[in-house]
Automatic annotation (TrEMBL):
Residues 565-629 are annotated as: Disordered. Residues 179-361 form the Helicase ATP-binding domain. This is Type I restriction enzyme, R subunit. GO terms for biological process: DNA restriction-modification system. Gene3D superfamilies: 3.90.1570.30, P-loop containing nucleotide triphosphate hydrolases. PANTHER family: ATP-DEPENDENT HELICASE IRC3-RELATED, TYPE I RESTRICTION ENZYME ECOKI R PROTEIN. Residues 583-592 have a biased composition (Pro residues). One of its GO terms (molecular function) is type I site-specific deoxyribonuclease activity. PROSITE patterns: HELICASE_ATP_BIND_1. Signal peptide: none annotated. Pfam families: EcoEI_R_C (PF08463), HSDR_N (PF04313), ResIII (PF04851). It comes from Sulfitobacter brevis.
Length: 820
């Protein structure tokens, strides 16, 4: 057998796998082949929606399932032994795998990324591949893991037998956390973008530490009931019998699989704690409060818990900060893990100061690039009153008959201190118009408003614009805010992919965090968003991909310029912080110390409009409102002044995750020129490819589906002409023009009557329908070929299948002869 004639798969089967087996690797539990670890980025460009090619490693070697330590890239024997090394190193960096191998079947090139080998790269014979024990010993030395720590780091993941496996970044997060805790680190921060499965990741961490006997009593803290309840019945379900909620309110909760269960409670009606459980889940609000009697957590001894996990630990206001910080201070001896999507803080506090630098971060940009999160397009809508401001005419009266203060009102005033009803109606009209034009008026939509009163008015305006659908179901539009019980009761239905209603939810802040709205397709921003933290949270409402309903991307409709945050270099960067205390400084900045913003500029003692306001200062129903001595700020309502749209534009995410304004033609040109540097290079690739469709399939995998491009840029051109014309400004010919040119050259004279008739019909098929794979025998089964004879008869007319295929290839060459 000539090794140089074998395929890459044959090289793996006949040489690499036997070498692994001979070195003691277990093929069932330790060796995985052709491992896809990203899904491929979803690319949205106008009407174009496609999924790019995912990344796939030839081999991933693990000492135990989900504890990977080595990667192998295989190549055909016609290539060098180390030909796959650079590709393997790129994958290893993503997967955080230290040992990289490349092979062509003759041996291995081994690259040690730990920096602990005197020679980073060495060549090995096939029989010299390191054993699992050898690589694990190197790994432990690199990580500084003792024998005891190594045993903890090797603790099994939970496996329910369903085949569900954690994603690569979840594995990275879990393993990084396990190793940090095994080495004695007692404050750990994990940063994972909204929609990437923080709760599932937390479950695997808790499960492994619990099963290893490292942590025996565990507290999971969150700030919303829905997070606790759904966590208990879904991700934390394997803890059943050992788990209870710190609450006195019994509930029956529906699981993700449609079954239901009653929550187990750790508090009785007298708020006495049952201390027999091992896993406790609780709300900050339920176990603490301003009064000493509300501080239930103090009923536990300070050393009761070994581990505390704090979900959404990015809360930046002084009130929220004190809620979870005082609990953690009580259980200071416990290992504490903070989970957050957005660790950037306001001036009040920084969780990085408390937990330390993240042991692992997975950003929104990474999630979109990997295809696990949905990309989005942004529609910026500019209203004349927002752009130009509004100044009342002399003697202008408001709705109550009082004269409106004579000054210029701008976007920061609208719906906060001044209400222009015509502006509210215009926003509702544009949202409705978008839903109608999208072809899906049942697309789940969240409209973020200035406050609860604004959300109520927006609900009414949207109801009036969608009266036909509201008549079918009054829940089509609902306000879901903290003070609206009817709306809150529908929150579960809004986030349920199976529940059609409500469709549109108007809110102020309730839906900005902690709500898993998987099918949300439209986010409307009709209020300013002052901080990056809140902005990321809001965007996170739409980033979940829902394959079953084809929710592959979402749209942000911005009426207030809030998407200016996209231009911030920190939008998808590493976590940042504001306050940097010295060794003897308090964790939280003292109130009397002047604060600075991210640019180092002084901040006023009162939060400005550009900051995150977690307690709404203009909400008359907010009991904590103290900005005006306990009374609400009076709003001025002005009717009949009108509002119009002055500009709209659509922006897209490029492949680097940056928003750009660019035509589909410009985008396509740039993308093609990255693939083919010149027209000659493209023609060489084209002429060397027997199956022309393969060229376009490769381009489609990179986000360029030509049916969509042709629909917008050239319906009568085939993909060949589209590429030549768009990328290289070559004169395009339509399919019909190319077909007529072939006929004029009388290219079929050497064939018999039946073969000639087949080729002429194939040429017509190309001209009319753009069929590219003309040698596909399946084409001969349909009209008009089915009337000419059977497939066997038609192929026999050419003298057999090889001659038929050659004739078709000659036909394709004739079609593109002028260009080539």
């Amino acid at each position: 057998m000539d090794k140089r004639l074998l395929s890459e798969r044959d090289i793996c089967t006949k040489y690499i796998t036997p070498a692994l087996r001979g070195s003691g690797w277990d093929e069932i539990t330790q060796v995985r082949e052709e491992v896809s670890f990203t899904k491929g980025r979803i690319i949205v460009r106008g009407k174009l929606v496609s999924r790019g090619k995912g990344k796939r490693a030839d081999y991933i070697l693990s000492v135990k399932p989900n504890i990977p330590i080595a990667i192998i890239e295989a190549k055909e024997n016609t290539q060098a032994i180390g030909a796959g090394l650079q590709q393997g190193l790129a994958y290893a960096e993503t997967l955080e795998i230290p040992f990289v191998f490349s092979s062509n079947g003759d041996g291995f090139v081994f690259h040690d990324r730990t920096g602990m080998s005197p020679t980073p790269e060495v060549s090995l014979a096939l029989n010299e591949f390191p054993s699992p024990e050898e690589l694990w010993a190197r790994y432990c030395q690199w990580k500084g893991l003792s024998d005891d720590a190594s045993a903890v780091a090797l603790q099994d993941y939970f496996d329910d037998g369903s085949g569900k496996a954690p994603r690569y970044y979840q594995i990275n997060a879990v393993n990084s956390t396990m190793e940090a805790i095994a080495k004695g680190q007692d404050r750990v921060l994990l940063v994972m973008a909204t929609g990437t499965g923080k709760t599932y990741t937390a479950f695997q961490i808790i499960w492994r530490l619990w099963k290893a006997g490292k942590k025996k009593r565990i507290l999971f803290l969150a700030d919303r009931n829905v997070l606790i309840d759904q966590t208990m019945v879904n991700d934390f379900r394997p803890f059943a019998g050992n788990m209870a909620k710190l609450s006195t309110h019994a509930k029956t909760i529906e699981r993700a699989d449609g079954t239901s269960t009653d929550l187990t409670l750790a508090l009785d009606k007298r708020r006495r704690i049952d201390t027999s459980y091992e896993i406790y889940l609780g709300l900050y609000q339920a176990i603490t409060g301003p009064d000493e009697s509300q501080k239930i957590y103090k009923e536990f001894s300070p050393d009761f818990f070994d581990l505390i996990v704090i979900d959404e630990c990015h809360r930046g206001s002084a009130a929220d900060d004190s809620a979870w910080r005082e609990i953690l201070a009580h259980f200071t001896s416990a290992t504490q893990i903070g989970l957050t999507a957005t660790p950037k803080e306001t001036e009040y506090a920084s969780n990085i100061d408390y937990f330390g630098e993240p042991v692992y971060s997975y950003s929104l940009k990474q999630g979109i690039r990997d295809g696990f999160l949905a990309p989005y397009k942004v529609i910026k809508v500019h209203i004349d009153r927002d752009v130009q401001g509004y100044r009342p005419v002399q003697g202008q009266l408001d709705r109550d008959g009082e004269e409106v203060e004579d000054r210029i009102y701008n976007a920061k005033d609208f719906d906060r201190t001044l209400v222009l009803e015509d502006r509210t109606k215009l926003v509702a009209q544009k949202v409705t118009e978008f839903l109608k034009q999208s072809g899906d008026r049942m697309a789940k939509t969240i409209v973020f408003c200035v406050d609860q009163e604004h959300a109520a008015r927006m609900r009414q305006a949207l109801i009036n614009e969608n009266a036909d659908l509201v008549a079918q179901n009054h829940r089509y539009v609902m306000r879901i805010t903290g003070n609206d019980k009817n709306g809150l009761d529908q929150l579960g239905n809004f986030i349920d992919p199976e529940a059609p209603y409500p469709v549109i939810a108007t809110t102020s802040r309730l839906l900005s965090t902690g709500v898993d709205a998987q099918t949300c397709r439209l986010i409307v921003l009709d209020r300013e968003v002052g901080s990056m933290t809140e902005f990321k949270q809001i965007i996170g409402r739409g980033t979940r991909v829902h394959e079953d309903t084809q929710k592959l991307f979402f749209t942000v409709m911005d009426f207030r310029g809030s998407t200016s945050h996209f231009a911030d270099p920190e939008f998808d960067g590493e976590p940042v912080q504001i306050y940097q205390p010295g060794p003897d400084d308090p964790i939280a900045p003292p109130d009397d110390v002047p604060q600075t913003d991210i640019d180092g500029e002084p901040l006023s003692p009162e939060p400005s409009d550009d900051e995150t306001v977690l307690i709404d200062p203009v909400d008359p129903l907010d009991p904590l409102n103290s900005k005006t001595g306990g009374g609400p700020i009076r709003k001025v309502y002005v009717d009949g002044v009108g509002a119009i749209i002055v500009a709209e534009r659509v922006e897209y995410l490029d492949e680097d995750g940056k928003l750009i304004t660019e035509s589909l033609r410009d985008y396509t040109r740039k993308a093609l020129q990255r693939q083919f540097a010149s027209l000659d290079q493209f023609l060489k690739r084209w002429n060397g490819e027997g199956r022309k469709q393969a060229v376009f399939e490769e381009l489609e995998a990179e986000g360029l589906p030509f049916d969509v491009i042709a629909a917008e840029l050239g319906k009568d051109l085939d993909p060949f002409d589209l590429i030549c014309h768009i990328a290289f400004d070559a004169k395009p010919l339509t399919r019909r023009e190319r077909a007529e040119s072939v006929k004029k050259r009388d290219a079929f004279t050497k064939y018999g009557p039946q073969a000639k008739a087949v080729l002429e019909a194939l040429l017509e098929k190309y001209a009319d329908e753009g069929v590219m794979d003309l040698d596909d025998l399946g084409v001969l089964k349909i009209a008009p070929f089915s009337g000419m004879g059977s497939v066997i008869e038609l192929v026999r007319a050419f003298g057999g299948k090889p001659k038929f295929e050659q004739a078709v290839h000659d036909l394709q060459s004739a079609i593109y002869q002028e260009s080539a």
